[in-house]
Amino acid sequence: MEKKKYYITTPIYYPSANFHIGHCYTTVSADCLARFKKQNGYDVYFLTGSDEHGLKIQKKATEAGVSPQEYVDKIIADAKDLWKTLNINYDKFIRTTDDYHVAIVQKIFKKLYDQGDIYKGEYKGLYCTPCESFWTETQLVDGKCPDCGREVSEVSEEAYFFRLSKYQDRLVDYIESHPEFIQPVSRKNEMLNNFIKPGLEDLCVSRTTFTWGIPVTFDNKHVIYVWIDALSNYISALGYLTEDDSLFKKYWPADLHIVGKEIVRFHTIIWPCLLMALDLPLPKQVFGHGWLIINGGKISKSLGNYRDPREYVKLYGVDAIRYYLLREVPFGSDGNFSEELLVTRYNTDLANTVGNLVNRTLSMLTKYFDGIILKSDVKTEFDDDLINLVVGTKKKVKDYMDKLEIPEALDAIFDIFRRCNKYIDETTPWLLAKEENKDKLKTVLYNLLEAIRIGAVLLEAFLPDTSKEILRELNTKETSYSDLEKFGLLEENIHINDFKPIFMRIEKKDE
Ligand code: MSP
């Protein structure tokens, strides 16, 4: 049977020499969902990339004394390194400076112009000459430029416009008849009531005040507005409007665009209207997640309140960071990040719950049975309860993941490990050993190891390295996701591999 396809995207990132933990949030979440869908048998395509045009980049490059292209090339190498460090398993990394993307965006612009959805007009606005920036009345601070505080002047500039207003009614109908399109539902209401229903104005989609952008082919003093350029990445990456558009035919429409809450607006207004103009189906869902904040405020370079995420990885390991990002904050809400919270999570869940469980269990197996996994027919009164919870977890995780409730799904897996720890307290294997109750002891250790195996397979999408390491230590070939409702597949008479504590407790500085 042909696999069902699943196309998932992150936003493409602004090249920033200062990636922070907030940037990792979208991508780690998307990576987890992509891996999960793969485990569930989907043919997944996971896209990420970088959004490299615009005045800001041009200015930064000038400040750095290099060309914009040189400036972005260096940062993109760094971004890819960050994603590698975080174990992000994307299928494609698109850059908006890639030739094929540039050509497709130009074709899209021309197509819309030819069919009358883009027209030439005049852009009137408030302009700050030193900053080369246009501002609206409401963006000004005390009537002055919000960036440099200097006077702004009214100017008008020739520009191209996209007929956003033409699509307003169709967009409202679509959003109202597809309740799953914008999630969580609070963001859908915000978009409809605050932005769309009050009225959409045509959108200015070209600029002549800077050059670092994709030129309009038929009027090349204009460069294409960065959001038109950037949003098109989701289809240009698949070869839309090219000779080989097989990926586009296979994967479009996207199943899920995961984006931060501040860019939901672009993804649920400009993007669907563009797609309607191109006569293409709309993405099935745009999910706007919340922000990671530090001490209740923004993660900010000027406040210097964060470190490069790779430093946390060096200190605590990649899965500790993934765990924090996936577990701490309800997906959709804002949540705090601090190193202290990270260490607390690490100690309670990773070191105490799963790390300690695996280490204790493998140590007991080594001590009592020379590291050989054995079974027996003798039961304990606590087995059924443990086994029922373990075999029911795959379904629970799937139900949560289908609703994008990632922290709840991860916690359901940790219920297995917590239940195992309780099972050790209930069955007291060290007493069984003293009593020479070998058969019961075999059962207890086998049940623990089998529960750990199932938990480890389920962890793959969330903490891939931890999952792999636990399964390696167990020396099992039973790593398939499809049979996790069956308890008892872990092989008998197998010798476990060498093992070490997978998460060492971290002593807090103040302790
Ligand atoms: N370039 C645009 C996206 C274009 S998509 C066609 C952009 N880039 S960004 O680099 O500013 O942001 C990329 C992602 O990182 C966004 O989803 C954004 O919400 C996310 N985050 C940046 N800071 C964040 C936090 N502090 N917390 C969580 N996510 C945040 O927007």
Measured between the Cα atoms of the first and last residue, the distance is 57 Å
Mean pLDDT: 95
- Write out the CATH superfamily name of the domain at 340-483: Isoleucyl-tRNA Synthetase, Domain 1
Structural class determined from secondary elements: alpha/beta
Which second-level CATH architecture of the domain at 340-483 applies? Orthogonal Bundle
Helix content: 40-55%
Shape: elongated
What is the CATH class designation of the domain at 340-483?
Mainly Alpha
Question: Can you tell me the residue ranges where pLDDT is under 50 for at least 5 consecutive residues?
Answer: none
Q: What would you report as the Rg, rounded to the nearest angstrom?
A: 27 Å
Strand content: 5-15%
Bound molecules: 5'-O-[(L-methionyl)-sulphamoyl]adenosine
CATH topology of the domain at 340-483: Isoleucyl-tRNA Synthetase, Domain 1
- Main beta sheet: strand number and arrangement? 6 strands, parallel
Strand order in the sheet with the most strands: 3-2-1-11-12-7
Number of strands: 14
Tally of helical runs: 18
